[in-house]
């Protein structure tokens, strides 16, 4: 074996100081912190050193070249990447509205001023303006939620998993809570009711068969240790066919007979009857309260369309006890969440406004004419590019997602793209890694952009990235 003489190659590596003294790098330091630029230069030199070390043949050695121009270019790219935030905006072309991996629900642009003010100025977060003394952060959502649901009181915590844990810890710790086996859900992101119950210190008593639970199953399971009857909305799966479950109203009857509270974990907090918009009926928070549930829990960032939170509504005596539970301090919500939720909930005072301005509701209820209009617009943008691909508008199916309405698929419109000279998965990868980070589905050898979840002002970015991907 001929030993390569790599000395000449190593000589091509510039020193950090040499790179630093370049005019372009001086300009880069005006754009990014010096530490980032330095780190990037070191990385670029290091990568090239490793490339040289890995060279095994004369041929590879011949091919290797490194100019200052190339080092500068690589440093600029590295600096940009090193300075970029890890949490980035993406374009959601999947059609899944509550996409758990893509940030679940989106906050309405209408409330950006409120959120910015809460974030950047002092507020009465824990201050009673009337009395001029210390107040509680938990009062802020009370009025709005009472107005919307008729519930006696409300408590908001970090997320719904935390809400369920706090509720059980307060109401059933050291005792038993009875739940139907058919409702022991595992929600995406590994929220498992049995595990949460175990953490809360309440014993879970599972009753019934997976597909059927009768009222007498609950009744027979009641002992002197029973602290609560619980109903969990099986929001991310359905047992089809021969099924039977007990309604909240029936459980409430039973609860009254034995003086036991009824807890309902709704999962998704729906505030308006979506069957009006052609969707499957989902029980609303209002329904649960009206039917007499003592405590109802739901997420702030599923169908409600607000910020991540777990909202607990119901009887004052239980909520007062929860406020005193030490766990509450560990699960408490941030002022930005309180602000985003209150301002989102206020939009519900006018249902039409809510459906128009809360992105989650807007996307879920988007009429076919609107989907077609959007598809035509995006198609026109893409057609102008004359891509080397088959491009057409077709029907596709969107989903609500976020573990909400599992059986609900909504007819939508997609732009289907099949490249002539590129693998469809290569196209998918290029667009995913592009500056706009477009996420979409691939099936039947087509790349499909569902227009339901793509904002109109993102169409130009989609077209630009497509153009680059085909270059
Ligand atoms: C989604 C869901 C949860 C968990 O809510 P997070 O806000 O994600 O913590 C709990 N229970 C049910 C029934 C759910 O659907």
From TrEMBL:
<feature type="domain" description="L-seryl-tRNA selenium transferase N-terminal">
    <location>
        <begin position="10"/>
        <end position="46"/>
    </location>
</feature>
<dbReference type="InterPro" id="IPR018319">
    <property type="entry name" value="SelA-like"/>
</dbReference>
<keyword id="KW-0648">Protein biosynthesis</keyword>
<dbReference type="GO" id="GO:0001717">
    <property type="term" value="P:conversion of seryl-tRNAsec to selenocys-tRNAsec"/>
</dbReference>
<feature type="modified residue" description="N6-(pyridoxal phosphate)lysine">
    <location>
        <position position="302"/>
    </location>
</feature>
<keyword id="KW-0711">Selenium</keyword>
<dbReference type="GO" id="GO:0004125">
    <property type="term" value="F:L-seryl-tRNA(Sec) selenium transferase activity"/>
</dbReference>
<comment type="similarity">
    <text>Belongs to the SelA family.</text>
</comment>
<dbReference type="InterPro" id="IPR015421">
    <property type="entry name" value="PyrdxlP-dep_Trfase_major"/>
</dbReference>
<comment type="pathway">
    <text>Aminoacyl-tRNA biosynthesis; selenocysteinyl-tRNA(Sec) biosynthesis; selenocysteinyl-tRNA(Sec) from L-seryl-tRNA(Sec) (bacterial route): step 1/1.</text>
</comment>
<dbReference type="InterPro" id="IPR004534">
    <property type="entry name" value="SelA_trans"/>
</dbReference>
<keyword id="KW-0963">Cytoplasm</keyword>
<protein>
    <recommendedName>
        <fullName>L-seryl-tRNA(Sec) selenium transferase</fullName>
        <ecNumber>2.9.1.1</ecNumber>
    </recommendedName>
</protein>
<keyword id="KW-0808">Transferase</keyword>
<dbReference type="Pfam" id="PF03841">
    <property type="entry name" value="SelA"/>
</dbReference>
<dbReference type="GO" id="GO:0001514">
    <property type="term" value="P:selenocysteine incorporation"/>
</dbReference>
<dbReference type="Pfam" id="PF12390">
    <property type="entry name" value="Se-cys_synth_N"/>
</dbReference>
<dbReference type="GO" id="GO:0005737">
    <property type="term" value="C:cytoplasm"/>
</dbReference>
<keyword id="KW-0663">Pyridoxal phosphate</keyword>
<comment type="function">
    <text>Converts seryl-tRNA(Sec) to selenocysteinyl-tRNA(Sec) required for selenoprotein biosynthesis.</text>
</comment>
<dbReference type="InterPro" id="IPR025862">
    <property type="entry name" value="SelA_trans_N_dom"/>
</dbReference>
<dbReference type="InterPro" id="IPR015424">
    <property type="entry name" value="PyrdxlP-dep_Trfase"/>
</dbReference>
């Amino acid at each position: 074996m001929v030993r390569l003489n790599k000395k000449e190659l190593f000589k091509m590596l510039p020193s950090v100081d040499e790179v630093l003294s370049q005019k372009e790098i001086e300009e880069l330091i005006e754009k990014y912190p010096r530490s980032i630029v330095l780190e990037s230069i070191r990385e670029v030199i290091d990568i090239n050193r490793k490339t040289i070390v890995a060279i095994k043949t004369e041929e590879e050695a011949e091919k290797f070249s490194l100019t200052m121009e190339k080092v500068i270019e690589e440093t600029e790219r590295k600096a940009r990447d090193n300075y970029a935030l890890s949490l980035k905006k993406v374009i959601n072309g999947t059609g899944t509205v509550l996409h758990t991996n893509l940030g679940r629900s989106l906050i309405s642009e209408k409330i950006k001023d409120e959120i910015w003010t809460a974030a950047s100025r002092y507020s009465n977060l824990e201050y009673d303006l009337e009395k001029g003394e210390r107040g509680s952060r938990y009062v802020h959502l009370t009025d709005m939620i009472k107005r919307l649901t008729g519930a006696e009181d409300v408590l908001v915590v970090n997320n719904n998993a935390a809400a369920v844990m706090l509720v059980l810890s307060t109401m059933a710790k050291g005792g038993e809570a009875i739940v139907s086996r058919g409702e022991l859900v595992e929600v995406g992101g590994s929220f498992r009711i049995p595990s949460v119950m175990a953490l809360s210190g309440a014993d879970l008593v599972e009753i019934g068969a997976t597909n059927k639970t009768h009222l007498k199953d609950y009744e027979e399971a009641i002992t002197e240790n029973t602290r609560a009857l619980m109903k969990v909305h099986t929001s991310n799966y359905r047992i089809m066919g021969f099924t039977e479950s007990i309604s909240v109203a029936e459980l409430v009857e039973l609860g009254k007979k034995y003086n036991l509270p009824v807890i309902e974990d709704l999962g998704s907090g729906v505030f308006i009857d979506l069957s009006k918009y052609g969707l499957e009926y989902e029980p609303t928070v209002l329904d649960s309260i009206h039917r007499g549930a003592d405590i109802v829990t739901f997420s702030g960032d599923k169908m409600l369309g607000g910020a991540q939170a777990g909202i607990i509504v119901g009887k004052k005596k239980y909520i007062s006890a929860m406020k005193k539970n030490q766990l509450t301090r560990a699960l408490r919500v941030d002022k930005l969440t309180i602000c985003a939720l209150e301002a989102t909930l206020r939009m519900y005072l006018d249902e039409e406004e809510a459906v128009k301005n809360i992105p989650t509701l807007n996307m879920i209820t988007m009429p076919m004419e609107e989907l077609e209009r959007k598809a035509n617009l995006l198609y026109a943008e893409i057609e102008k590019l004359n891509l080397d691909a088959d491009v057409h508008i077709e029907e596709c199916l969107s989903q609500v997602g976020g573990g909400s309405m599992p059986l609900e698929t909504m007819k939508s419109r997609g732009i289907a793209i099949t490249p002539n000279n590129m693998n469809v998965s290569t196209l998918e990868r290029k667009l995913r890694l592009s500056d706009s980070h477009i996420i979409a589905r691939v099936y039947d050898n087509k790349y499909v952009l569902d227009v339901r979840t793509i904002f109109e002002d993102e169409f130009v970015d989609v077209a630009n990235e497509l153009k680059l991907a085909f270059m």
